[in-house]
Design a protein that fits this description.
Structural class: alpha/beta
Number of helices: 13
Radius of gyration: 20 Å
Shape: elongated
Number of domains: 2
Distance between the termini: 26 Å
Order of helices and strands: HEHEHEHEHEHEHEHEHEHEHEEHH
CATH class of the largest domain: Alpha Beta
Strand order of the largest sheet: 2-1-3-4-5-11
CATH superfamily of the largest domain: Response regulator
Length: about 325
């Protein structure tokens, strides 16, 4: 399933989330009575993902936590610091046995969590999918709250094509696609979509595995550039490659000669947009992914209102947007 909701509904929900955030900032919830389950204990929810150490999850979990604070429930972000999918399944199993009230899960590879998802459904414990895993959501009739990664990849590819010189002017030009986790559905969808735009135009595409370790990623980018000084751009599909490529370009005085085009916002990406080492990035409103996941899980648990899928979008962000939307402050605060 590529499309997960009407654009209008998505925008409305995101605006509602933004309004609630402002409300929370202006009216602290000190002293609010915690929401309890049938046994009188404070309700417990969790967000379970791979690569918990990756910067991308900061705004996602910030949204999850902010919603939890409004509702008076306890939350945690769990999972392996790397890409170990089995550890995600094991964590979900442990939470189920502990009596968790609901979880938002990240499904990196189709089918990888089917067994444990079926256990949650059989037990009647609310589970939704966020950021990656729309296939699992469709298979089990669950909500997917996140970006339509293929559609976002199309927009990413179109923007890269423009940077290279536009249709009919790019044959033989070379770009490197950077991925932190080969095989992860969201990242593969983005690259597949980009290929549909660039390959028919004759663009040469090399795919580099950066891992989620930024030190390793920097070495991968450096080695590739030394071997391919004709590369026109480093095009990342995640939160690791985007800032690393921009940093390499800045450190080696390559601004204007090589561009970085990526996904997501980090402090380094924002700095790259300002200094020209980052041509653009694609933002998926990760704060909304966490905020809306928590809100919908709570409504399902307390009122029986089963969540709806929400497409949080694929929004092109350029240097002009940094000041316009106060991105430096929002990224620093963990909201973008």
């Amino acid at each position: 399933m590529r499309h997960v909701g009407k654009v209008g509904a998505s925008v409305l929900l995101v605006l509602l989330a933004a309004g609630l955030l402002v409300s929370a900032v202006e009216n602290p919830l000190e002293g609010r009575e915690p929401a309890s389950n049938g046994g009188g204990d404070t309700m417990q929810f969790a967000m379970v993902t791979i690569a918990t150490s990756v910067q991308f999850w900061v705004p996602v979990f910030q949204g999850f936590k902010d919603a939890a604070a409004m509702l008076g429930v306890d939350v945690q972000h769990l999972g392996p610091p790397g890409g170990e999918i089995q550890e995600v399944a094991d964590t979900l199993e442990t939470l189920l046995a502990s009596g968790i009230d609901g979880v938002a899960a990240f499904v990196a590879v189709p089918g990888s969590l089917d067994v444990v998802i079926e256990k949650y459904i059989a037990a009647g414990i609310p589970i939704s999918i966020l950021a990656t895993g729309d296939e699992a959501a469709e298979k089990y009739g669950l909500a997917y709250i996140g970006q339509d990664n293929y559609a976002a990849g199309i927009e990413w590819g179109k923007k890269i094509l423009d940077l290279l010189g536009g249709s009919g002017n790019v044959s033989g030009k070379r770009v490197a696609f950077l991925t932190e986790n080969p095989g992860q559905t969201s990242l593969e969808d983005r690259m597949d979509a980009g290929r549909t735009i660039l390959e028919p135009e004759g663009v040469i595409i090399d795919v580099l595995d950066t891992t989620v370790d930024r030190g390793v990623a920097y070495g991968v980018v450096e080695s590739y550039y030394l071997a391919h000084p004709d590369v026109a751009g480093f095009c990342s599909v995640d939160t690791t490659g985007s800032p690393v490529a921009a940093t390499y370009i800045e450190n080696n005085d390559l601004v204007g000669e090589v561009f970085s085009a990526g996904f997501d916002l980090t402090a380094e990406v924002v700095q790259g947009l300002k200094n020209g080492s980052m041509a653009f990035t694609v933002d998926q409103h990760p704060y909304s992914e966490g905020f809306l996941s928590m809100m919908q899980l709570y409504l399902w648990t307390t009122l029986g209102l089963k969540p709806s899928g929400v497409n949080t979008g694929g929004h092109i962000v350029t240097a002009e947007d940094v000041e316009l939307y106060g991105l430096e402050e929002l990224v620093e605060a963990g909201y973008r």
